[in-house]
Specification:
Structural class: mainly beta
Helix content: under 10%
CATH topology: Thrombin, subunit H
Number of helices: 3
CATH superfamily: Trypsin-like serine proteases
Largest sheet: 7 strands, antiparallel
Distance between the termini: 27 Å
Oligomer: single chain
Radius of gyration: 17 Å
Shape: globular
């Protein structure tokens, strides 16, 4: 990664940053971020699709349906975390995806009260060194000012690792529809670990979930960014739904950071 290509909105868009973390659902150890209008790609093999170490129980997203989706990558294929483009300069991701070694990015700002031990305030803003060029395939997502409501169905997307052992990522962006769970159900699943800045989404019975490599990616409702993929115990495990950062709690901070930087 001594030299990186410049940004473009074509088939091989440029990379912007190296970032990493040690908690949550990230998938590697050192990364670069790529704004991806994700053209049609080859499909994973049947054996890969049977593996359970990716967005589990989901489906291939329709081409260009998530034009704000970005990923962090090490090399050309090693994806670490996801993120969401919110304007031409800024991306929202998870704070636990941060690492001090950053290249070709202007700034990476974790929420000041991020707690790496309990993963509270797991949100980060990344400013690009060059602005994204919007097109039909690259678009920002509005930030939701409404907080999650139990029973609401949201969309999670990402390129989580598809191998239980080793590292291999799907070529095609994966999507998953998940219901937001009640706060009481969320706290019952993770006693003493859920804060006011977190919500659970998924299925208590298991079988469908985000997973390693999806961290930092979007939780979308009605075309707006409702949450950020954060953490969970295992993936798609019974009684352990996915846990997500509640974006509505950070609207003022996001606006302040963008205005001051």
């Amino acid at each position: 990664l001594n030299s990186l290509p410049t940004f473009s909105t074509g088939v091989n868009p440029g990379r912007y940053l190296i970032a990493a973390g040690h908690l949550g659902r990230e998938g590697g150890s050192s990364t670069a971020m790529r704004i991806l209008p994700w053209p049609l790609c080859s499909l994973p093999s049947a054996s890969q699709l049977e593996d359970d170490d990716k967005i589990i129980g989901g489906y291939e997203c329709s081409p260009h349906s998530q034009p704000w989706q970005v990923y962090f990558t090490y090399g050309s294929d090693y994806r670490w975390c996801g993120g969401s483009l919110i304007n031409e300069w800024w991306i929202i991701s998870a704070a636990h995806c941060y690492k001090r070694s950053l290249i070709q990015v202007a700034k990476a700002i974790q929420f000041p009260q991020y707690n790496q031990y309990n993963t509270d305030n797991d949100i980060m803003l990344v400013k690009l060194a060059q602005p994204a060029q919007f097109s039909a395939y690259v678009q920002p997502i509005p930030i939701s000012r409404s907080c999650p409501v139990a029973g609401t169905e949201c969309l999670v997307s990402g390129w989580g690792n598809i191998l239980t052992s080793g590292v291999q990522y799907p070529d095609v962006l994966q999507c998953l529809n998940v219901p937001i769970l009640s706060d009481s159900a969320c706290r019952a699943a993770y006693p003493g670990r859920i804060t006011k800045n977190m919500f659970c989404a998924g299925y208590i019975e298991g079988g469908k979930d985000s997973c390693q490599g999806d961290s930092g990616g979007p939780v979308v409702y009605n075309g707006e960014l409702m949450g950020v993929v954060s953490w969970g115990i295992g993936c798609a495990q019974k009684n352990y739904p996915g846990v997500y950062t509640t974006v509505c709690n950070y609207v003022s901070w996001i606006e302040e950071v963008i205005a001051n930087n």
